[in-house]
Design brief:
Layout: H1 3-14, H2 26-53, H3 57-81, H4 88-96, H5 99-128, H6 136-153, H7 155-179, H8 181-196, H9 200-215, H10 219-224, H11 233-260, H12 265-270, H13 274-281, H14 287-317, H15 337-353, H16 356-384, H17 396-418
Helix pairs in contact: 2-5, 2-7, 2-9, 2-11, 2-14, 3-9, 3-11, 3-16, 3-17, 4-5, 4-16, 5-6, 5-14, 5-15, 5-16, 6-7, 6-14, 6-15, 7-14, 8-11, 9-16, 9-17, 14-15, 16-17
Length: 419
C-alpha cells in the first residue's frame, strides 16, 4: 500500500485526519532550516567543540562539514523523490525495500530529535542563567511549555516565528564577527602554530570536536520532514536545503575561528554562554547578545520538537510500533497534537536530568547512523532509476556521504575505546 493510502487508513482508525496542510514556502523553509541548525550549533554546542578541539575548532567544523554537505545533497535529492513527513523512514524503506529497516530508522531518528530538543533546551537554560537568576527547573519547564504552544498552533505560525528569530540570530552573528574581527584575522596563524605541534592528543581532541560538531548540522534532516507541509516540494525542498547548508557552514567556520583566534579559548570552553563571553571580552555589553541568543535557541528547540512529533505521527499512522492513536492530526490546528505532547514530556525529563555534553554526543551518534542509511538508500534508488522531475546528484555524492558517516562512527568508537 502506498504511503498516503496507509496513512489515511490508519488515521481513520484513529478517529481523525492524518493529512498535513501545505502552508510553507521556499524562504520559510530556508529560515526554518538555517535557524534550527544555527540554534543547535553556534549558540549551544560551540563551547563544547572548543573545549575538545581548542585552536583547531574551525578544522573540527570543516571535518564535520564533509559529512554534512555530502549528506545534505543526498537529502536534497531523496527528499524530492519521496516527499513525505516520514523523512528517513520512507527513504530507507524504499531504498532498501525493507519495512523493518524503515521502521528502525524512524525510531532512531525520533530518539535523536527528542534528545536534540532536550540538548537545545539545556543550552537555553545556560544562556538565560548568564544574565538572570531563575531556577533551572522553572526555566526548563517554561521553555518546554512555550515550545509546545507554538508547535501545536500550526506550521504557518511556527514558520513565521522561526523566520523572525533566524533573522535576529544572523544579525547577532554578524555583529559578533564585527567585534571579534581582530581575533578572526589572527585565527589562521593560531591554527598553523597549533598544527606544527600536532600529536596524538591534538588528533584526539580534533576528532572529538568534529564528532560534537556533526550535531551542529542536523537541521537539514528536519527540513526534509516538512515535505507534506511545503508548497512545490520537489522544487523548493532541494533548493532550500542547499541554501541553508551554505549559510550555516559559513557562520560555523567564521564564528569558531573568531572564538579561538586570540588563543584564549579555555575561557570559551568553560563558559555557559560562550558568545556572550567573547563579546564582553571585547568590551561590549553581553546582555543584547544573550537575549538574541535565547530567541535563536528557542527556534532550534522548536524545530526538533516539530520534527519528532511528525515522526511519531508517521510511526503511529503506519503502525510502526506505536498505536494509531498517535497518527492523528488535529482538525482545528492541522498539527499532530497528541504526538507533540508526548514529545514535550520526554524532552522535559531529559533536559532536567541529563548533562548537555552527553545529550549532544548521543544525538550525534544516532544522526550519523541515519545519515549513513539515507546516503546508502539514495545510492540504491539511483541505481534503479532516475526521475526527470528531481535533482540528479552525482552518484559519488551518496557514496562519499556513506563513507564519511561510517568513518565518523568508527572515529567515535575509537574515541570511546581510548577515552
Amino acid at each position: 500500500m502506498a504511503q498516503g493510502e496507509t496513512s489515511g487508513a490508519n488515521a481513520a482508525d484513529a478517529g481523525g485526519s492524518g493529512e498535513l496542510n501545505r502552508e510553507m514556502g521556499f524562504w520559510g523553509l530556508v529560515f526554518y532550516g538555517s535557524g534550527t541548525i544555527l540554534g543547535a550549533g553556534i549558540f549551544v554546542v560551540v563551547g563544547e567543540v572548543v573545549g575538545e578541539a581548542g585552536a583547531l575548532s574551525p578544522l573540527a567544523y570543516l571535518l564535520a562539514g564533509l559529512v554534512a554537505v555530502t549528506t545534505a545533497l543526498s537529502f536534497a535529492e531523496v527528499g524530492a523523490r519521496i516527499p513525505t513527513a516520514a523523512g528517513a523512514i520512507d527513504y530507507v524503506e524504499k531504498g532498501f525495500e525493507s519495512r523493518r529497516l524503515g521502521s528502525l530508522a524512524g525510531w532512531i531518528l525520533t530518539v535523536a530529535n527528542i534528545v536534540s530538543g532536550a540538548t537545545i533546551t539545556t543550552g537555553f537554560v545556560a544562556y538565560l542563567g548568564s544574565f538572570v537568576s531563575v531556577p533551572d527547573w522553572l526555566a526548563t519547564a517554561g521553555l518546554v511549555a512555550l515550545l509546545g504552544i507554538i508547535a501545536i498552533a500550526g506550521m504557518k505560525q511556527s514558520a513565521m516565528f522561526m523566520t523572525l528569530t533566524t533573522l535576529v540570530g544572523m544579525a547577532t552573528l554578524v555583529f559578533i564577527l564585527y567585534v571579534t574581527r581582530g581575533s578572526l584575522l589572527a585565527a589562521p596563524s593560531q591554527i598553523t602554530e597549533t598544527m606544527t605541534g600536532f600529536d596524538a592528543t591534538a588528533m584526539t581532541g580534533l576528532f572529538a570536536g568534529a564528532f560534537l560538531a556533526i550535531y551542529s548540522f542536523i537541521g537539514f534532516g528536519d527540513m526534509a520532514q516538512t515535505a507534506e507541509e511545503l508548497r512545490a516540494v520537489k522544487r523548493n525542498l532541494p533548493r532550500a536545503i542547499i541554501v541553508s547548508i551554505g549559510i550555516v557552514f559559513f557562520f560555523y567556520l567564521a564564528i569558531s575561528a573568531a572564538l579561538v583566534g586570540d588563543g584564549n579559548f579555555e575561557e570559551i570552553a568553560a563558559a555557559q554562554a560562550p558568545l556572550v563571553v567573547v563579546v564582553e571580552r571585547q568590551g561590549w555589553p553581553g546582555l543584547p547578545v544573550a537575549i538574541a541568543s535565547l530567541f535563536v535557541i528557542v527556534n532550534g528547540g522548536l524545530t526538533q520538537i516539530i520534527a519528532a512529533a511528525r515522526l511519531i505521527l508517521d510511526l503511529g499512522r503506519d503502525r510502526r510500533g506505536l498505536p494509531a492513536y498517535f497518527g492523528h492530526v488535529n482538525s482545528r490546528t492541522d498539527t499532530p497534537v497528541r504526538a507533540t505532547l508526548v514529545t514535550l514530556a520526554i524532552v522535559l525529563v531529559l533536559a532536567l536530568f541529563v548533562p548537555l555534553k552527553g545529550l549532544a554526543s548521543a544525538t550525534s551518534l544516532a544522526i550519523l547512523i541515519i545519515f549513513a542509511g539515507v546516503n546508502a538508500a539514495l545510492f540504491a534508488l539511483k541505481r534503479r532509476s532516475q526521475p526527470d522531475d528531481v535533482p540528479d546528484m552525482w552518484i559519488g555524492v551518496p557514496v562519499l556521504g556513506t563513507l564519511f558517516c561510517l568513518g565518523a562512527i568508527g572515529g567515535q568508537v575509537w574515541l570511546w575505546l581510548n577515552g
